[in-house]
Design goal:
Blueprint: E1 6-11, H1 20-30, E2 37-42, H2 48-60, E3 64-67, H3 75-85, E4 90-93, E5 99-100, H4 104-114, E6 118-128, E7 134-137, E8 160-162, H5 163-168, H6 182-192, E9 196-208, H7 218-234, H8 238-245, H9 247-253, H10 256-267
Parallel strand pairs: 1-2, 1-4, 2-3, 6-9
Antiparallel strand pairs: 4-8, 5-9, 6-7, 6-8
Helix pairs in contact: 6-7, 7-8, 7-9
Length: 271
């Protein structure tokens, strides 16, 4: 294969007995209208069924490359392992339980070609909840730093980056304070370096949303507070953002049912 334009990076820690979501995710990438890509998958720690499925894909499609450095259990470590092997000038993110619509890469790549001032591009997403509810999350077209105060204005696995921008900030932070908020940290570091992004106002991605509280413990929430402190300070907006710095802790104290209703209202879901 010639040098690919896009390197798709996916960190997999797939433990479900049913590999249906993983299969759907990989199939959605391989079915992209724009096909000049390589698909780098780091699956350290996955179940035997998931490993076998990914090996089957790698055997059948030369664009799929499995990366297994050993001990790469945390997502930022997996993604950096993929980035070190990436050959494309563009880096597409993907998660193992989401779905990219066939025209995603083509439209995002076109946006980066047309807008040289933009370093990464996302899109609106269809939220798929465990409850079965669905709703479209419409994101700001040109997010500003202030859009990060309350919540992240991008959906991380739906992003396409210029590799040069990721290289400029040394990829993902692997320190523990970024655990489960490595995407938030990355995007704010990009903004601090002068790189900006946009969201196409089209729904090109189906996002399997976690439950209201997700998998964050209070320890993870304290770490997100530290991430917010560091990044907002670096951006020179700490005092403006101060009311939002403790937001992860406040969310962690809300009753699950109330938190679910707040998120549903934000995302246009009933309930």
């Amino acid at each position: 294969m010639s040098v690919p334009q896009i390197s798709v990076v996916m960190g997999v820690y797939y433990q479900r007995a049913d590999t249906g979501l993983l299969r759907r995710s990989v199939d959605s990438i391989l079915a992209q209208d724009f096909s000049e890509f390589e698909f780098l998958i780091c699956d350290d720690g996955s179940s035997e069924a998931a490993k076998a499925l990914l090996e089957e894909y790698a055997e059948k499609d030369g664009r799929v490359r499995l990366i297994r450095p050993g001990g790469a259990l945390r997502l930022p470590v997996k993604l950096n392992a993929c980035l070190r092997e990436a050959k494309g000038c563009l880096i597409a993110r993907m998660d193992d339980d989401d779905y990219s619509r066939p025209d995603r890469f083509g439209k995002q790549r076109k946006a980066l070609i047309e807008r040289e001032d933009i370093s990464f591009v996302g899109c609106n997403v269809l939220l798929c909840m465990a409850s079965g509810e669905q709703g479209t999350r419409v994101l700001p077209e040109f997010p500003r730093v202030s859009d990060f105060y309350m919540t992240q204005p991008y959906v991380h696995p739906a992003l396409l980056f210029r590799k040069s921008a990721l290289d400029a900030v040394n990829g993902y932070c692997e320190e523990l304070y970024c655990d489960l908020c490595e995407d938030y940290d990355l995007l704010l570091r990009l903004y601090a370096k002068g790189f900006i992004g946009m969201n196409l106002q089209e729904t090109l991605f189906d996002y399997t949303a976690p439950n209201a509280r997700g998998n964050r413990t209070m320890r993870h929430r304290w770490r997100e507070v530290e991430t917010r402190c560091r990044r907002f300070s670096e951006l020179g907006v700490f005092w403006k953002a101060l009311p939002y710095v403790a937001k992860p802790l406040a969310v962690g104290l809300l009753p699950e049912r109330l938190l679910e209703r707040i998120k549903n209202r934000r995302d246009g879901l009933n309930g």
